[in-house]
Write a structure and sequence with these properties.
The complex is a heterodimer of chains A (about 900) and B (about 110). Chain A is α+β, with helices and mostly antiparallel strands. Chain A is built from 30 helices and 25 strands. Chain B has one domain: Arc Repressor Mutant, subunit A (Orthogonal Bundle). Classes of the chains: A alpha+beta (about 900), B alpha+beta (about 110).
Chain lengths: ~900, ~110
């Protein structure tokens, strides 16, 4: 039939329904439809449609239009009543309220702190206005068949090539030396600050905020641009412009500008002054003569407008290769086929931590992984708190079924009940939020020291309040939705008659939530213990030398040189120094890696890199290294100038059974050597680099180029007096430099800082997670006990003992916690094994950790639950049965 | 005070309600109006008048049966009240009286009812 195919225009029908009085809808729609089909059969479908619309518009008459509902004039009073009732409910159950609000507040506090930290990390370097156009030039290539990238040190000739042949790609391109410490002296004031020599375009590129002078202040080769803090340290509050000072006592410069110190979350934060590149060239003429295979230069650039990092990278990729392709003596470099690339500023902090592998140039995604890890933990802790909150709210609300029944019987609409429950949940969330903001404000200094950051509360940031508001809305909605939507649907008759029982689904949901909660907590605790184990394991690693009383002084300026013997004699004379020596680097690091070593029986295809450290004869006595074989360097043997001491790893790597006496040939351009060396001794491995990594095979040899003075304080001498005596000597012999020193044990301890930080963060969050979970459990246990009051009473009357009842009530919870231990253990095992794989020197994950943590979880659960269960079990059955 | 006067359109509609009897609902009345007068009228206009007449007390209504061509919806059947009948009659009498006073037509018309 035709009728089935055609239909009155639905849009018109919908329109009609929007304005038509409800009581008229039946007759009017019927009339119009009858008219429609009549027109359709008599005339045409189209006419019928048209006519329908016409008829609909003709119903726009006062009599037919729905009257708007009478509005409540006392909205305010209604909400006031909601909140008043909510408030009374909170007061009535003080215990629950405290647990509920407190738990949520702790969770939110953690979320706020972690949020601040994550924001800080993600906003790194964004202070610079040209953030998205700045990059550092880096180099990659092929080594032993595999591509590598991430070399930030570049050859000097490259800057000329980029500046001449590729100039159009860059708005600014500046060369720079790596930042290091220099001594700034103005009259009697001497300070040592990290500074960097670089091209004149940098201030504009970094959009430095100039307090004095302008962005062109580095044009003159004898100028210096100070940070506000450095200027203050040198000149106090006086205007430093035009003042003359010395860098490292040898370079005279005039202050031409002062910039506001860069914030902590910038790459150049540590650099406290900038000096012109021209000045560096004047004092280091060798720079200009460096060939393509000496890598030491940093190059920063701002790409030109209308270009992108990809397009510029594509343009310059062959920049080096094109030039060196035909050159002689560079066959090794050419074989690597160097590729020049850009490292955008956005990757500097989170994706390009090359500090672990400076020699291999493997970009480390560690920092960004750490950020994700911490953010995940933060989310989990917050989730725990929310789960608690929901659990307790729903558990409590079941007790209020009667209230719902009575309210409904009195004439409450469902909508009003929904609003009632929601307003209560929002009341709690808002309270918790206010508490959380207060807590975070109080805890921020502590958190800053823990995370080694300087975060501040973002009171004035819109995003902070926006996120907070969003969080309040979502949490309130989620936590309040169960009671609001489920409870308000009760049939009042059933509820009031008492035949109503809460569904199994609600209690299953609660159990799942408890399991989830404890899974997270147990995982966090297991992880914390393993992280600590790893730190302790690495700390207990034998270092191979004696750190006690060992201090190191870096030779920061030229005035240190040529004073070796004088210093030695004077220091020895004081009597506070047991031994003094010099070396090419600190004992806590290896700066120099070299190849070119040949020995009998060496596999010719092996390209072996050895750490190389030039030392003076007394080095061994100063640091106290331990010999496995052979002897130490000695003044008595002139031939020791071609003698070397190697460590055990080196001996093993060389495959020499009796290394002492073996001849090693070493040819190296940088050390300017090409001769035979004899192994005179083998020492135990010294942990000089990371205590988590395998020891680097290292070769120690005598030479005269030293940048560190090592001093061993005589045993029994008080460190403070020793330092005072030494300072006097240094003041006398090297008056131009401040006496600055490092303790070997302190420098060594710094190597653990990162892992210790992870450990501390994990343990803090783990403890809080457990605390929050226990709060939830406590609340739930008391709820269960309360719900089963009658049952317990009857059981007691029939003859159950307190122990029986305690067992009965605790059993459920113990099972849940055991279940979560079962879930958590493999998760923790898997993720922590992954984490440990980052370390060559690592502890084993032993089973007892899991056992102990699970046992602890059970004990904590029992303690938490028992308070309530025993209280319930001890109750006088007469009372509990009488109560209604 | 209730409005008791009757407009021309109202009078016709009231009469049509009387004529249609059991079938007096908005759509039918509108159709009948069109076929009797040849003038187009919307259902809405008719309904609005019916509603007004009901408010004045000339009509009363109740929900009637439903038919499939209305999509199973019921219709509102209007019937004239005693007051409605009286008003119609008064209106006719009043006009008759006027006709009677019109000399050109007086006595020429035969309007037995």
């Amino acid at each position: 039939m035709a009728r089935n195919k055609i239909h009155p225009p639905r849009l018109a029908q919908r329109l009609l329904r929007t304005f038509l009085r409800d009581d008229l809808s039946d007759e009017v729609l019927g009339d119009l439809e009858e008219k429609f089909y009549l027109t359709a059969t008599r005339r045409s479908q189209f006419k019928a449609q048209l006519n329908y619309w016409y008829q609909v518009f003709h119903y726009l008459r006062p009599f037919a239009i729905r009257k708007s509902k009478p509005t409540y004039s006392n909205h305010f009073a209604m909400y006031q009543s909601y909140f008043k009732i909510g408030w009374r409910n909170l007061l009535k159950n003080k215990g629950y309220s405290v647990i509920n609000i407190g738990g949520l507040a702790v969770g939110m506090t953690i979320a706020i702190l972690i949020g601040l930290w994550v924001y800080h990390e993600l906003s790194f370097n964004k202070y610079h206005k040209n953030y998205d156009r700045i990059a550092q030039v880096m180099k990659g290539g092929t080594r032993e068949g595999t591509l590598f990238s991430g070399g930030l040190s570049l050859p000097y000739p490259l800057i000329d090539v980029l500046k001449t042949s590729y100039a159009a790609n860059f708005k600014h391109i500046v060369e720079a030396l790596q930042p290091r410490e220099y001594i700034l002296s103005s009259g009697e004031t001497k300070i040592s600050r990290t500074g960097q020599f670089l091209g004149a375009g940098l201030p504009e590129m970094l959009s430095l905020e100039m307090l004095r002078g302008n962005w062109n202040c580095l044009q003159d080769p004898h100028s210096i641009l100070l940070s506000a803090s450095a200027a203050k340290a040198l000149y106090g509050d006086a205007d430093p412009t035009g003042k003359v000072l010395k860098i490292n006592t040898e370079m005279d410069v005039k202050v031409t500008g002062v910039y506001r110190d860069l914030p902590h979350n910038t790459k150049f934060h540590d650099v406290k002054f900038f000096a012109p590149w021209e000045l560096a060239l004047l004092h280091n003429a060798w720079i200009k003569d460096q060939p393509w295979d000496n890598h030491f230069l940093y190059i920063y650039c701002e790409i030109a407008p209308n270009t992108s990092f990809e397009s510029v990278s594509k343009m310059i990729v062959e920049a080096e290769m094109k030039v060196i392709d035909k050159m002689e003596n560079l066959s090794e470099l050419i074989a690597q086929r160097p590729r020049i690339q850009l490292l955008p500023m956005s990757d500097w902090h989170l994706r390009a931590d090359f500090s672990h592998f400076p020699n291999y140039g493997i970009p480390d995604s560690g920092p960004v992984r750490f950020v994700i890890l911490v953010a995940t933990i933060g989310c989990f802790v917050l989730l725990l708190a929310c789960i608690n909150f929901m659990n307790l709210s729903t558990a409590r609300s079941e007790k209020r079924a009667r209230e719902v029944g009575i309210r409904k019987a009195m004439g409450s609409f469902r909508k009003q009940l929904v609003s009632q429950f929601f307003s209560e949940s929002y009341l709690v969330v808002i309270f918790a939020f206010i508490l959380a903001v207060t807590f975070s404000f109080i805890a921020l200094p502590w958190f800053n020291s823990l995370a080694d950051k300087e975060l501040i509360m973002p009171w004035t940031y819109h995003w902070f309040w926006g996120c907070s508001l969003g969080f309040i809305l979502i949490t309130g909605l989620v936590a309040g939705s169960y009671p609001a939507l489920y409870l308000s649907s009760f049939n009042p008759i059933k509820v009031l008659k008492g035949t109503y029982r809460t569904g199994r689904s609600a209690s299953i949901l609660r159990k799942v939530l408890v399991v989830a909660q404890f899974t997270v907590s147990v995982t966090l605790i297991i992880s914390t213990i393993i992280v600590y184990n790893q730190i302790v394991f690495a700390k207990n690693r034998p270092v191979g030398y004696t750190q006690v009383g060992l201090i190191m002084v870096q030779k920061k300026s030229n005035d240190f040189y040529g004073k070796t013997d004088e210093l030695r004699n004077e220091l020895k004379k004081t009597g506070v120094v047991e031994e003094i020596s010099e070396s090419g680097g600190p004992v806590t690091n290896v700066w120099s890696n070299n190849d070119g070593f040949e020995w009998a029986g060496k596999d010719p295809n092996l390209k072996h890199q050895f750490g190389t450290l030039g030392v003076s004869t007394e080095y061994g006595k100063t640091v106290g290294w331990q010999f496995v074989e052979g002897r130490d360097f000695s003044q008595e043997f002139v031939s020791d100038s071609s003698g070397i001491v190697i460590n055990e790893t080196a001996a093993k790597d060389m495959g020499l059974e009796h290394p002492v006496g073996e001849i090693i040939h070493w040819k190296n351009r940088w050390w300017n050597v090409d001769k035979d060396y004899k192994i005179i001794g083998v020492v135990k491995d010294m942990v000089m680099k990371s205590p988590y990594e395998a020891t680097l095979p290292t070769i120690f040899l005598l030479n005269r180029q030293h940048s560190y003075i090592n001093i061993k304080i005589a045993p029994g001498v008080d460190t403070k007096t020793a330092l005072e005596q030494m300072e006097k000597v240094f003041r006398k012999l090297i008056p131009s430099a401040p006496f600055e020193y490092q303790f070997a044990d302190q420098q060594y301890a710094l190597k653990f800082a990162k892992e210790e930080r992870i450990g501390k963060l994990a343990s803090t969050f783990g403890t809080l997670a457990v605390l929050i979970s226990c709060l939830g459990l406590f609340g739930l246990a008391s709820f269960v006990a309360e719900q089963r009051t009658k049952e317990i009473g009857i059981r007691k009357v029939v003859g159950a003992t307190v122990i029986d009842l305690w067992q009965m009530l605790s059993k459920d919870f113990i099972l849940l916690v055991l279940l979560s231990c079962l879930v958590a253990s493999p998760i923790a095992y898997y993720s922590l094994s992954k984490w440990l794989e980052n370390y060559a020197y690592r502890t084993e994950i032993s089973c007892w950790i899991f056992g102990i943590v699970c046992l602890c979880a059970v004990i904590i659960t029992l303690l938490t639950v028992s308070f309530q269960t025993i209280k319930a079990a001890m109750m006088n059955p007469v009372k509990s049965l009488k109560s209604e | 005070m209730k409005e008791t006067r009757l407009g021309e359109f109202e009078e016709v509609i009231l009469l049509l309600v009387g004529i249609l009897g059991e079938q007096a609902y908005a759509f039918r009345i509108a159709e009948e109006f069109e076929s009797q007068t040849g003038r187009a009228v919307s259902i809405g206009a008719t309904h609005s008048t019916l509603d007004r007449l009901e408010n004045k007390g000339f009509l009363k209504s109740e929900m009637g049966s439903s038919t499939p061509e209305r999509g199973g919806r019921r219709k509102r059947i209007f019937t004239i009240t005693a007051l409605g009948k009286r008003v119609l009659k008064e209106s006719r009498d009043f006009k008759m009286a006027l006709w009677g006073q019109y000399p050109a037509f007086a006595g020429k018309l035969n309007y037995e009812m």
